[in-house]
Amino acid sequence: MANYVKIGNLNVADVLYQFINDEALPGTGLDREKFWSELETLFSELTPKNKQLLAQRDEIQDKINVWKRENRDFRFENYKLFLQEIGYLEPEAEDFQISTENVDDEVALKAGPQLVVPVDNARYALNAANARWGSLYDALYGTDAISEEDGAQRAGSYNPIRGEKVITFAKEFLDLAAPLKQISHKNAVKYSIVEGKLAVLLSDGTTAGLQDDSKLAGYNGNPENPTAILLKNNDLYFEIEVDRSHPIGKTDQAGVKDILLEAALTTIMDCEDSVAAVDADDKVLVYRNWLGLMKGNLTANFSKNNNTVTRTLNPDRFYTSPTGEDISLEGRSLMFARVVGHLMMSNAILDPDGNEVPEGIMDTVLISLIGKHSLLGTGKYQNSAKGSIYIVKPKMHGSKEAAFANETFNRVEDMLELERYTLKIGVMDEERRTSLNLKACIREVKQRIVFINTGFLDRTGDEIHTSMEIGPMIRKNTMKFSTWLQSYEKSNVFVGLAAGFQNRAQIGKGMWAMPDLMDEMLKQKIGHVKAGGTTAWVPSPTAAALHVLHYHQLNVKRVQEILAKDIHDLKDDILNIPVAENPTWTPEEIQQELDNNAQGILGYVVRWVDQGIGCSKVPDINNVGLMEDRATLRISSQHIANWMHHGICTKDQVLDTLKRMAKVVDQQNAGDSAYRPMATDYNQSVAFQAACDLVFEGYVQPNGYTEPILHRRRLEAKAKMSVEK
Ligand SMILES: CC(=O)SCCNC(=O)CCNC(=O)[C@H](O)C(C)(C)COP(=O)(O)OP(=O)(O)OC[C@H]1O[C@@H](n2cnc3c(N)ncnc32)[C@H](O)[C@@H]1OP(=O)(O)O
Ligand SMILES: O=CC(=O)O
Ligand SMILES: [Mg+2]
């Protein structure tokens, strides 16, 4: 239990109190006393509204459950009318255009990958910020993007056969992104800059130039023998790195040692579903890392391959322009912070009645306060060239909740003496009530919105929970082909385009949750660009360096122009519920589904509850490592709860499955010295009990969220561990 300091009528955990007074406030120009007294006022005025919105969520869900029980014979028209009556489907909002100002180019104008990273992990967070630039050769060589066929194995020391395949791939990329006149980059033997243009000497002794000379953006070194040639395609930079003395450069006839790609244009520093932050200590770690990123002084020391590494933020990159001027490019990704949603309360601050305060409000204050350091330019780097602070708001249901976020942002701006609309909002479109009323939601934040993003993972969890009573859901892996999901994705783009997102805000697509399957990602994720997404989520810097290739292949602006000609309403399709009509699953198929879900739940939860790790790679039943976070947990736990509710499986069967899978997960983690096995004593394992709660209490969890149980059980595990010490 934390020690609390009384300040005014608030009780603040001392670790948070010290952090704010000693680290976050100094340098922001804000008066300490005023800050604390205004924080108290903020909580006292906004908490009741926050609670009322949560109560409304519960009321709506209860009504939906009761309606189905009373209307056994499901008729779509009646269902839709009922949803309108209870305010779940809001009246159609009038047309409008968003008017967000001061949006950085990475968000408004450029299209490219968005990396997500748990901000409590400084090493990963720094890596993510630095993933603005990534090596194409490393991304190809180190992943399955290049096949291991024909002697091109990855394991062991450098394999020149594999290296050759990488170089071939890279030259094909150059031919696509910066084609030469009538010849391939494969024929290049020397790159030079002559009179401000790229001149490429070819193997036959002739010289070729670029098809489009304006693609040359700069260079480094002697123009005759440059060490770097900076090119630009679809507004994205990339650099041919030349070094004939380098082990790889030596093998290349033009001396090319790598292609450096502008990759993660933006990064989401996540304080939400990929972190496990349950008390003041955890929250301070999250906030302190964000402070280090905003001041530019975050460092991480760790050992890797027997070397001690100190990681810091990368500097900007400098070049000479084709016409001889000095130019610089951002060395780091533009950072957003994802705060928590409206649901959770935090024990880091207690209100005058001793109640925990809304965590989403606390996050908004702290993230913005810390963001002010970067705005004032007191640190090493400035995150936003346009004076904005970027905040992602997840898990909102409907327009009243968006309006509440806007009100909170207004209040926080006033409190922190920031100009109106300094705080920008990215709205996660990941709850059914938001997808259906997206236009009305956007309208509530139309002066500050910078993205809508289809968080299809949470969205799938909400789909299952909302329609829990309607029937048994189709199998998890078939969800992505279902009508509701496809139309939700399309509708998000249509609504964004109609509201004027082009050149002002991102239309974002969801996460690639298979971090090791890069070949498959290269094949599939271009679908996000074809669908009109100006960005899409990737789980790692490597994935960012590969996904950016899609934005070189297609110009999203052109795609959007075509899509904009056929904008139409898709609400009826979004309302198509993914229940299995007369399911004919065999007992084996049912068991396989349960095994898969149970393994994912346990593999994730055990690290969350016992070790406080909020995002993990967990092998699925086919041994494919899946990125699991709280949203994927929501799906798996709700899916089992749904099948149990409809008698597809029994509680005993689920418990047996969980026990059997606990043994599998224990084995998978055998090499981790910090791991606590679950199967040695199921009753004593807090993690195992958490997994059981998530499933067996899944029906009654608010909107099927996993946070309340995870937080409760993590606090229990922490308390148990401190007694054991
Ligand atoms: C539904 C949603 O809300 S999705 C959003 C939440 N999800 C996320 O944020 C996903 C973030 N990704 C991750 O946390 C990780 O990639 C995981 C957990 C999936 C896999 O992690 P690991 O098993 O450690 O990955 P792996 O061993 O392959 O690679 C580790 C290396 O990649 C880097 N790395 C991996 N993921 C990231 C990331 N997201 N950002 C920055 N660096 C990363 C690490 O820094 C490390 O490199 P280093 O040794 O130089 O520091
Ligand atoms: O937050 C992302 C999601 O898919 O959920
Ligand atoms: Mg989500």
Automatic annotation (TrEMBL):
Pathway: Carbohydrate metabolism; glyoxylate cycle; (S)-malate from isocitrate: step 2/2
Enzyme class at the top of the EC tree: transferase
Catalytic activity: glyoxylate + acetyl-CoA + H2O = (S)-malate + CoA + H(+)
Subcellular location: Cytoplasm
Protein family according to the UniProt entry: Belongs to the malate synthase family. GlcB subfamily.
Subunit structure: Monomer.
Protein known as: Malate synthase G
Originating species: Neobacillus ginsengisoli
Organismal lineage: Bacteria, Bacillati, Bacillota, Bacilli, Bacillales
